[in-house]
TrEMBL record:
Pfam families: Arrestin_C (PF02752), Arrestin_N (PF00339). This is Arrestin C-terminal-like domain-containing protein. Residues 364-382, 389-419 have a biased composition (Polar residues). InterPro entries: Arrestin-like_C (IPR014752), Arrestin-like_N (IPR011021), Arrestin_C-like (IPR011022), Arrestin_domain-protein (IPR050357), Ig_E-set (IPR014756). It comes from the Eukaryota.
Length: 460
C-alpha cells in the first residue's frame, strides 16, 4: 500500500446467521479508504463477479528425438536429441459466470459510459480530489438469478464469488482490496429420481478358506439428502457360508477437475462405520442409520470444470477373500437460510432417528501423492470465516440487479456516514440440477483419454 493510500478494504452486511447468500439476494457493502494527504483519483470502482478455475501441473519422463511438443497444457523444460527429459505440463481452465461493475469515480473516455456511476449522499457525483481522512463508499449488488454452483475450494480448483475494489491514480500502482461472499444455491427438488428409492444386490460363491455362498441386498429411501440429514440403510443378508461376516459402511467423496481433455481425481473417505455381525448359516435383516455432516461441501453437478460427487458403499467383510460391495450415488443438497435465518424446509421423511452419528475421525487419503486440504471437504469450517455485522433489516426497496446489462437507473446505496462495523469477509471457500449420470451420458464433461485400470475403478 502506498504512503498516500494508507488502507483500502471491502466489507458487507450479513443477511443471516450463517453469512451466506443465494440467488436473488441483495448485498449491501462499502469500500473504506484511508488517505494520508490530498490526492487525485483517476478511477475508483467496485466489481462483483463469479467464476470457477482449475490449475495443476504434472511431471513425466519421455525419450526425446528432436524438438518435443505437448498435446495438452503448457510445457516447461528443454528437449535434446535422443535422450530422456523431465517434462512439466500445466493444465488450466476457467469458467466465468457473471461480472458487474459500478464506479464511484470514473475517467470518461469518449462515449465509454456504459457502466453505472454511483453518487454520494447529496445525490452528486463523487469528487475525484479526495481530502485526508477515512472515506466510505457504499454500494449495492444483487446476486444473479442464475443456476450457479456453490462456493468451493478444492486441491487444484475453486468456485468463488468476489467483491473487488480498485482505486487507480496517474503514474501510481493501483490500490486493490477484495472480499468473498459464501454462495449457497437453492436446492432443486424437481430433479427426476432424486427422491426415488435405491436398491442393489450382490451374490458371491466362497472358495479356498471359506465354503458356501453369500448374498445380500441394500435399500435406501432415496438418492438426495440435505446436509445434516440421516441416511437409513436396510440390508438383507443371506449368509450360507461357513464363517461369520460383518457389514461395513463407507460414505466417500470424489472431486473431479477438468482441463484440456484431462481429468484429475481426488477421493476421500468421509465416514466409515461397522454394522452387526451376521452369523454363519443365517438370514438377517439389518437397519443402519448414518448421518451426513452438516459441514460437507454439497454436490456440484452444474459446473463444467469441477464436479463434486458422493457415493455410499456397503460391503460384507469376508475373511481371506474379496469383499462383495454395493455402491449408490448420493446427492447432498444445500440447506439455504432466509433473511431471518430460517432454514429451508426439507422434504417429508420417514420417522427415522439420528442414531448413526457423524464419525469425527477422518480416514486418511487414498488418492496417491496428492493431498487435498481439509477445507475442500468441509465447506464451512468453524470459526475461520469472520462474520460481518448482523443486519436483520432488509432494504425497503429492491434495487435493479447490478448484473443486468440492460439500461436501468443505478440503485443508490443508503448513505451511512458512520464507520463500517462489518469486517471484511474472509477469502474463504465452499445445487445439483440433476442426479449424477453415467460418465459421458449427456456429454456434460470433456472426453477423457485412455485411463489406467486404477482410474477406471474410481469412476464407479
Amino acid at each position: 500500500m502506498s504512503q498516500t493510500i494508507k488502507k483500502i478494504s471491502v466489507t458487507y452486511d450479513a443477511i443471516n446467521p450463517n453469512n451466506t447468500f443465494t440467488c436473488g439476494d441483495i448485498i449491501h457493502g462499502r469500500v473504506t479508504v484511508e488517505i494520508a494527504k490530498d490526492t487525485k483519483i483517476d478511477s475508483f470502482r467496485i466489481k462483483f463477479k463469479g467464476k470457477a478455475q482449475v490449475r495443476w501441473t504434472e511431471h513425466d519422463h519421455h525419450h526425446a528425438h528432436g524438438q518435443g511438443h505437448v498435446h495438452h497444457g503448457h510445457e516447461h523444460g528443454h528437449h535434446g536429441h535422443g535422450h530422456h527429459n523431465r517434462r512439466t505440463v500445466t493444465y488450466f481452465d476457467k469458467e466465468k459466470y457473471f461480472k458487474s461493475e459500478q464506479f464511484f469515480i470514473r475517467e470518461v473516455k469518449g462515449n465509454d459510459d456504459i457502466c453505472p456511476v454511483l453518487k454520494n449522499e447529496a445525490g452528486e457525483p463523487y469528487c475525484d480530489i479526495v481530502a485526508p481522512g477515512t472515506h466510505i463508499y457504499p454500494f449495492i449488488f444483487q446476486v444473479p438469478q442464475q443456476n450457479l454452483p456453490p462456493s468451493f475450494q478444492g486441491a487444484v480448483g475453486f468456485i468463488a464469488y468476489t467483491l473487488e475494489a480498485k482505486l487507480s491514480r496517474s503514474m501510481r500502482l493501483s490500490s486493490k482490496a477484495k472480499a468473498e461472499i459464501h454462495y449457497v444455491p437453492k436446492p432443486d427438488l424437481t430433479v427426476p429420481d432424486l427422491m426415488v428409492p435405491q436398491h442393489g444386490s450382490k451374490d458371491k460363491r466362497m472358495k479356498v478358506f471359506t465354503s458356501g455362498n453369500i448374498s445380500f441386498s441394500i435399500h435406501t429411501e432415496r438418492m438426495g439428502y440435505y446436509l445434516g440429514e440421516p441416511i437409513k440403510i436396510v440390508a438383507e443378508v443371506q449368509n450360507s457360508s461357513s464363517r461369520e461376516l460383518k457389514l461395513k459402511y463407507c460414505l466417500y467423496g470424489k472431486h473431479s477437475f477438468f482441463a484440456q481433455h484431462k481429468r484429475k481425481l481426488h477421493t476421500q473417505d468421509i465416514l466409515k462405520e461397522e454394522g452387526e455381525s451376521i452369523a454363519k448359516s443365517t438370514r438377517q435383516t439389518v437397519t443402519k442409520v448414518i448421518t451426513i455432516s452438516p459441514h460437507l461441501t454439497t454436490s456440484i453437478l452444474n459446473c463444467r470444470i469441477i464436479k463434486v460427487e458422493y457415493r455410499l458403499k456397503v460391503y460384507l467383510d469376508v475373511p481371506y477373500a474379496s469383499d462383495p460391495e454395493i455402491k449408490f450415488p448420493i446427492v447432498i443438497l444445500p440447506v439455504t437460510s432466509a433473511s431471518g435465518g430460517e432454514k429451508a424446509a426439507p422434504p417429508a421423511m420417514s420417522s427415522i432417528g439420528f442414531g448413526g452419528g457423524w464419525n469425527p475421525d477422518q480416514p486418511p487419503w487414498n488418492s496417491g501423492p496428492y493431498t487435498l486440504p481439509q477445507q475442500a471437504w468441509n465447506s464451512m469450517p468453524p470459526n475461520t470465516m469472520p462474520q460481518p455485522a448482523w443486519n436483520s433489516m432488509p432494504p425497503n426497496t429492491t434495487p435493479q440487479p447490478a448484473w443486468n446489462s440492460a439500461p436501468y437507473t443505478t440503485p443508490q446505496p443508503a448513505w451511512n456516514s458512520a464507520p463500517p462495523t462489518a469486517p471484511s469477509a474472509a477469502w474463504n471457500s465452499t445445487a445439483p440440477t440433476a442426479p449424477p449420470p453415467a460418465y459421458d451420458s449427456y456429454a456434460f464433461y470433456p472426453p477423457l483419454p485412455n485411463s489406467s485400470e486404477t482410474e477406471k475403478s474410481d469412476l464407479l
